[in-house]
């Protein structure tokens, strides 16, 4: 059997997948972004309602995909609720992987980091007509590399 | 490309062939037998091919068609011998019709860039199918962007067969090329290439065949099939990665302009221009994949010793066995046609469990390697209304034990995620 240390589908992860934190939509979203992982078709959308001082008044995610991508989005959403866009920008990819918990292979790290990437972009993606931009783009939101899997010839 | 009854006993002793493949003798994650079911992505190689590679580097390696010295003669002889062996393997008329490329993708791109740019005009049509790999779609979309040509698709039925009735409407005087896969890398469907070639030619079009999934698994005779271009890869047929083949009919290749420019492909270079060289050098600019090409002789030897007919029969036996074993598991849905209509590819979905989670669990718990995702066939997945599937694909060294382990892994996966 797989040892507990090697088990990526820990109870906490499966709980987040089956009973996610804030899956859905903000009542008054000011920022929104979504992306697809071209490797597997996983989709994550992040919606934010930003308040004074860049405080995250409300945060919701939506999407579909594997247990890792969806659980990671739930974990990230719970962690960021009530924090600020500065906290979002400060959260590095290694810190996101640590927040997730179980050690992931390089390929599955992409599943875990999808919601993190989407959130980094979401704070720079005001919805048309909404009051404020999160901040000027600073290049922290990474591009989505077209990793296309193993059938490449 | 004949089909045999899937329930027929396998003519191969896969368990003893397995002993030729050092990589398959390993245990992974401490104690799990490696069950390699990702052969449609890339196969493993027997020690005969590995030895051919190391022999080349230890004894005969130099650049080819260049040096007037002993090593260069050895390398050139080995390189041209491989070309001749591959010619025989697909029954091409001349070894000049065998162009070494880096793989199927480059072979198709070569035709799109060279033949396509020279011959297609705005309004001309390229006919593909819904089930093509991205490497037999994107080069044609790019060609369409450059020329104003139009890309159309032969549709498929719900069980993954080409709807040939649509050809009456799709093939016409504007059709210049039919580009179709011989075997779907996702569904396993074996397409009727001879029929498609006849229909294309009746309409005045050429036919290019993506044979990446067929040449390694089914007897292939380009004369009998009547195809104009055929592309395949070494790494999917026990050979090294980095080498592939474009077969083209001589008169077509002779009329086509060179694709890549550089050394080896020239007849003469002056300060005011160049004259292209003869076939096949015309399409082999630069230093080719020398050692991988040379080692293809060992791969062809191995496949011919086992017998491609026997390999196909063995894979159909495994496919029939897998359809039965997986079909007995509640919640497993296999896509594509029944076993007798396809090659050794079994692609499926599990109710409520994403393909990546399936692959992860069967890998860690059972040492099973499969492919999970869209397998470079996003339009096909869209047609079937799914985003990701799990694919098991077989080769000559796979056994019914491998299929049993896969089935066991799926049972574990289902139990693991059925918590509430």
What do these coordinates show?
The complex is a heterodimer of chains A (153) and B (420). Chain A is of the alpha+beta class. Chain A has a single domain (11-122), classed as Alpha-Beta Complex (Sufe protein. Chain: A). Chain A has helices at residues 11-18, 67-80, 85-90, 93-100, 106-122, and strands at 31-37, 42-50, 56-64. In chain A, a hairpin with a 4-residue loop joins strand 1 (31-37) and strand 2 (42-50). The longest helix of chain A has 17 residues, at 106-122. Chain A starts with 10 loop residues before the first helix and ends in a 31-residue tail after the last helix. Chain B has 420 residues and is an alpha/beta fold. In chain B, strand 1 (27-28) and strand 2 (32-33) form a beta hairpin. Residues 1-6 of chain B have low confidence and may be disordered. Helix content of chain B is 39%, strand content 17%. Chain B has helices at 14-17, 47-60, 70-90, 104-119, 138-147, 167-170, 193-202, 222-225, 250-255, 290-306, 308-327, 355-366, 378-384, 400-417; strands at residues 27-28, 32-33, 35-36, 98-101, 125-129, 150-154, 175-181, 206-210, 229-233, 244-248, 266-270, 273-276, 332-335, 345-350, 368-369, 371-373, 389-393. The longest helix of chain B is centred in the N-terminal third of the chain and has 21 residues, at 70-90. The interface between A and B is medium-sized, with 24 and 37 residues.
Helices and strands, with pairings:
The complex is a heterodimer of chains A (153) and B (420).
Chain A: H1 11-18, E1 31-37, E2 42-50, E3 56-64, H2 67-80, H3 85-90, H4 93-100, H5 106-122
Antiparallel strand pairs in A: 1-2, 2-3
Helix pairs in contact in A: 1-2, 2-5, 4-5
Chain B: H1 14-17, E1 27-28, E2 32-33, E3 35-36, H2 47-60, H3 70-90, E4 98-101, H4 104-119, E5 125-129, H5 138-147, E6 150-154, H6 167-170, E7 175-181, H7 193-202, E8 206-210, H8 222-225, E9 229-233, E10 244-248, H9 250-255, E11 266-270, E12 273-276, H10 290-306, H11 308-327, E13 332-335, E14 345-350, H12 355-366, E15 368-369, E16 371-373, H13 378-384, E17 389-393, H14 400-417
Helix pairs in contact in B: 2-10, 3-10, 4-5, 11-14, 12-14
């Amino acid at each position: 059997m797989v040892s507990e240390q090697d088990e990526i589908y820990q109870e906490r992860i499966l709980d987040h997948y089956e009973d996610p934190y804030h899956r859905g939509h903000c009542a008054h979203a000011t920022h929104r972004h979504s992306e697809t992982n071209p490797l597997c078709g996983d989709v994550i959308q992040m919606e934010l309602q930003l308040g004074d001082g860049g405080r995250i008044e409300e945060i919701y995610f939506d999407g579909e995909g594997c247990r890792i991508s969806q659980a990671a989005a739930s974990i990230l959403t719970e962690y960021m609720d009530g924090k600020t866009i500065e906290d979002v920008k400060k959260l590095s990819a290694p810190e996101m992987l640590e927040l997730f918990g179980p050690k992931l292979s390089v390929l599955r790290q992409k599943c875990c980091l999808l919601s993190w990437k989407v959130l980094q972009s979401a704070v720079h993606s005001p919805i048309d007509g909404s009051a404020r931009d999160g901040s000027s783009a600073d290049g922290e939101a990474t591009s989505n590399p077209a990793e296309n899997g193993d059938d490449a010839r | 490309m004949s089909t045999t009854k899937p329930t027929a006993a396998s003519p191969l002793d896969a368990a003893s062939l397995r002993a030729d493949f050092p990589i398959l003798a390993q245990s992974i994650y401490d104690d799990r037998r490696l069950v390699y079911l990702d052969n449609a992505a890339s196969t493993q190689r027997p020690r005969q091919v590995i030895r051919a590679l190391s022999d080349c580097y230890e004894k005969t390696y130099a650049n080819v068609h260049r040096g007037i010295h002993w090593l260069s003669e050895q390398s050139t002889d080995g390189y041209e011998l491989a070309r001749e062996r591959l010619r025989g393997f697909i029954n091409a008329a001349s070894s000049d019709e065998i162009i070494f490329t880096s793989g199927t993708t480059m072979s198709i791109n070569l035709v799109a860039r060279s033949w396509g740019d020279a011959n297609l005009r705005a309004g001309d049509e390229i006919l593909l199918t819904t089930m093509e790999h991205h490497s037999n779609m994107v080069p044609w979309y790019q060609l369409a962007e450059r020329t104003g040509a139009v890309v159309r698709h032969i549709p498929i039925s719900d069980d993954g067969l080409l709807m040939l009735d649509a050809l009456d409407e799709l093939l016409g005087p504007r059709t210049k090329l039919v580009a179709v896969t011989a075997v779907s890398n996702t569904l396993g469907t074996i397409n009727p290439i001879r029929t498609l070639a006849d229909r294309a030619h009746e309409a005045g079009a050429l036919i290019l065949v993506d044979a990446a999934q067929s040449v390694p698994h089914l007897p292939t005779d380009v004369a009998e099939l009547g195809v104009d271009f055929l592309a395949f890869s070494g790494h999917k047929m026990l050979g090294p990665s980095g080498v592939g083949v474009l077969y083209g009919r001589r008169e077509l290749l002779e009329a086509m302009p060179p694709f890549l420019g550089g050394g080896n492909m020239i007849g003469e270079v002056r300060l005011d221009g160049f004259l292209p060289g003869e076939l096949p050098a015309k399409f082999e600019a630069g230093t080719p994949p020398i050692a991988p090409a040379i080692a293809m002789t060992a791969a062809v030897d191995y496949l011919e010793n086992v017998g491609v007919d026997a390999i196909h029969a063995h894979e159909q036996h495994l496919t029939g066995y897998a359809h039965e074993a997986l079909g007995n598991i509640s919640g497993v849905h296999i896509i594509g046609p029944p076993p007798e209509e396809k090659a050794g590819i079994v692609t499926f979905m599990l109710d409520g469990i994403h393909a990546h989670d399936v692959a992860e669990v069967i890998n860690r718990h059972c040492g099973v390697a499969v492919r999970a995702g869209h397998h470079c066939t996003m339009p096909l997945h869209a047609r079937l209304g799914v985003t990701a599937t799990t694919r098991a694909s077989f080769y000559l060294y796979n056994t019914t034990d491998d299929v049993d382990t896969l089935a066991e892994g799926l049972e574990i996966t289902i139990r693991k995620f059925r918590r509430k």
